[in-house]
Design brief:
This protein is 84% helix and 0% strand. The termini are far apart. The protein is built from three helices and no strands. Helix 1 runs antiparallel to helix 3 and helix 2 runs antiparallel to helix 3.
Length: 179
Amino acid sequence: MRALRADLYIPLPRFLPIGEEIKKKAVLVAHDLQFTIQNLNSTTLIDDARSTGDILTENNTADTKLGVMGYMEESLQQLLDAETRAQEIHRKAEETRERIIQEALQEAKAKEEQFESRLPELHQSFMEKAETRGEQTIAELKKRFNERHAQLREYAEVREEDALDAAFAVLIDPKADED
């Protein structure tokens, strides 16, 4: 099977989310286009047949000329009919290709609009998660603060007696502070 001509390739933008169904449709259109191109090459066969007919008519007698001309006329008519069918197939393939492209663009636009319509919902969800994480962090910090506060209270209670003795010693005997 021959490859598609480069001038028939129409790239879709990369940002479009193309589903499997669209890819399948695109492949079918590409195959139709290849078939059409191959059938369009039959016009060269028509030209070759006409030149062959001219050569045969120049070299043969009148009776042979009529037989060959009738055969050539019939062959040419078949080729012209094939060309007409190929043109019709090509036209239909072009219409199908254009329709698929338009459908893909509409689908992409619909998905983009759907995403944009969901933005407030996504934003709200994000804000709720952030608020929950913030509340968890605040609760954790309060817990640490209360634990540290309890440790300091215990430490202060343990050292309270020593601190009072040292304070009284300084008040009673100012020289005891120098030690």
